[in-house]
Write the structure tokens for this entry.
Amino acid sequence: MRSGSGVLSYCFKGSACLLVVIGFFGLIWLRSSIRSVQYELGALENEHWGVLRQRMELDADRATLFSDAKIGAVAVEKLGMEFPDRTMVFYVKRDRGSIPYEAAYKR
């Protein structure tokens, strides 16, 4: 009986040692994979902040392109538009009811 339990004891001790070694290497693998995920996450965060910075710069450029002064300059230079002469503006009076409207220069 003693020899049978010795073989079982050796098998149990061997499997326990093997389990400890596999667990140790598994723990090392898990820590290294977590570390690589952390590095990848850091790189993605840096890329995210770079893209946000670029977006803010593009928003600022867009705001300057859509400013009133820029639109006015493009309208005058490229489209040939002019600002109206305020002395030559027609005024139409609408408070006369059913009488026909009159248009005239107002000085």
User: Anything to note?
Assistant: The chain has one domain: 2-105. The mean pLDDT is 84.
